[in-house]
Amino acid sequence: MTTDHEPSDSTTVAGESGEPRRRIGVYVCHCGGNISDYVDVAAVRDAVAGDAEVVHVETTLFACSDATQNDMIEMIESQHLDGLVVASCSPKLHVPTFRAVSRRAGLNPFEYTQVNIREQCSWVHSDDRAGATAKAIGLVRAGIAKTAHSVPLEPITVETTPSALVVGAGVAGMRAATGLADLGLRVYLIERAATLGGWVDRWGPMYPNGADGHQLIERLREQVATRDAITVVTNAELVAKSGNFGNYDVDVRVMSDPPTTQRFRVGSIVVATGFDTYQPEVGEYGYGIDGVVTLAEFKELVDATPGPLRVGGRPVRTVTYIYCVGSRQPDGHQYCSRYCCAATVHASITVADHDADVAQYHLYRDIRTYGKLELLYQESRRRGSVYMKFPDDTPPAVRRDDAGHLVVRTTDTLTEGMAVDIPTDLVVLVTGMVPRENHDLTSLLKLPVGGDGFYNEIHPKLRPVETVVDGVLIAGTCQGPKNSFESVASGLAAVAQSGATLLKGVAELDPLVVNVDQDRCTWCGACQEVCPYGAIDRIVCDGREVATVNALSCKGCGGCAAFCANEAIELLGSTTAQIESMIDGMLEGSARDEELMV
Questions:
Q1: Do the domain assignments include residue 578?
Q2: pTM
Q3: Domain limits for position 551
C-alpha cells in the first residue's frame, strides 16, 4: 500500500522562517512479518504521511529487496527527494545497503536515516501491538526530524600504504600472509613464539579428511619462505602503533639479546593471535588423578601412538569422554566451543582404527557435529562408540575405587535416567577454546572484546572480519572458536578486505566524526583526556589554545562532546540540533496518533 503526501508546491514549501522545507521519503518495512506481525505498519505510514517534511511514504514487504531498492531510486529521482528514512531492522545490518541506494539515486548517503523498529520495537513489544505501534510512530518521527536537520557530508579520503602487518603465525595468520603477498602487497608476519605454526603444528591427522596438521604447517612454512614480499619476525610482539588508517607506523619488539625494535609502515593490520585451551582446576571432573587428561593431551597421545593406546605401560581397553568441560557453564565460559565435539568424535574414530576392540563411551550434554561433520558422528557410532546423555544439573563424577581403578558415574537420560558406573582406563575431558591473554595488544589496538572474551567483529554476516577500528581486522580463533577450515576462511576474508582497500591506493572513511567550534573552545583539555583514540590535539589559533580533531583517527564515539563544558564539540550526523529534534519528533502529535490507532 502506498500513500503519497504532496505539499502544495511540488519543489519546495516555505516554512514559517521563509526557508525551504525538506523533501523526505519514508519507507516502513513489514520485514516479512517480523515487524508487521506486532506493529500496525499501515498506522505508522498514515501517522507520518501528514508531516510537513514528508512528500512520500509507503509500506513495503522487504525494504532491502532489489525491487524495493529500485523503487526507492526511482522515487528519489522523480520526487526530487533530499532525505530518506527507512524504518526496518538494525542499522548494523543494512546501513551500507541504503547508503548505496542513496548514492545511486544522486542523494547524499548521509542524508539517509535508518530507524530500527524491529529489534527496538516489534521484537521487544510482541505482547503489546498498540504500544509497539505507538512506539514505532515515535521512532519514525524522530528519524524524520533527524533527517530534516541533516546536511550533506562527504567521505574522508586517505591515501594508503600497500603493505600489511599480520600478528600471529598460526594457520590463519600464515594463510593470510601468503594471500596478501600473492595480491602484490608487502607483508610483515610477526610471531611471539620462536617458530611459525601455532596449535596446528602440534597435531597429526585432523578432521574431517585426516589431513596431517604438522605437514599442513610445513607446506605453509615453505610457501611463506618462497615469497620475497613476506618478512617474518619471530620471538616478536607488537608494542606500539601510531599514525592513521592506511598509514600506520608499528613498532615490533624482537626478544633477542639485547632486545631490538623494528618499525614498519603498513596500511592494515590483521590480528590472528589464536586461542588457549581450557585448563581444568585440580579436582574438576577428576583432573589431577592419574589417567585423567584433557582433549589436547589426548590428541597428542593419539598422534604419537601409531598402534594401540598404552598409558603407563598398560594397554588402554576403555576410554570415557566427558564433553563440555569448561564450556557452556553458567558460572564460567557460557559459550559453546564448537570444534570440540567433532575433534573428539574424530579422535575416537582414530582410536578405533588402531584397535577396534577398545570400548569408548561419550558422555555428553549435546552433540554438535554441525554441517557435514554429522557424518563423523555416524561413523563413530558405527565403529562401536556408545553415546550417553547426562542432565545439565547432574554432571559425571570421576573417582578411583577401593582397588585403585578409575570409575566414572553418570546419569543416562536416554535410559530413563539410570545411574551407570563405567570402569575405565582413561578419562578424556573434552576441553574447548578460551580467549588468549593479550591485554597489552588489545589495549594498544583498541580491539573490541565481546562478553565471551574473544575479539568482536562489526557484523558476523556482513562484515565478519572487520573491527570498529578502521584498517584493523581479525582472523582465526582470536575472534571465537573455529576449526582449521573456518580459521583459514576468515584469514582469506581478511585478505580480501585488506586487498580491496590497499590495492586501490586510496580509501574512504565515514565523515561521522566530531567537529570543534574553535570560537567557543577555551581548551580545558577534558576532551583530550577522555578520547580513547588519541584523536584530539591542542593547537594555537589566533593566539588562543584550542582543540583540533584528527578526522582520520576519530571514530565518532562522541565521548568528548559529552565532556565539553562550552558545547564547542559536535558529532557530525548526530548534532545537538538533530538529537533535540528527534526528542521533539517523538513527543509531538501523540494525541493524533492515538486517534489513528483506535
A1: no
A2: 0.85
A3: 514-572
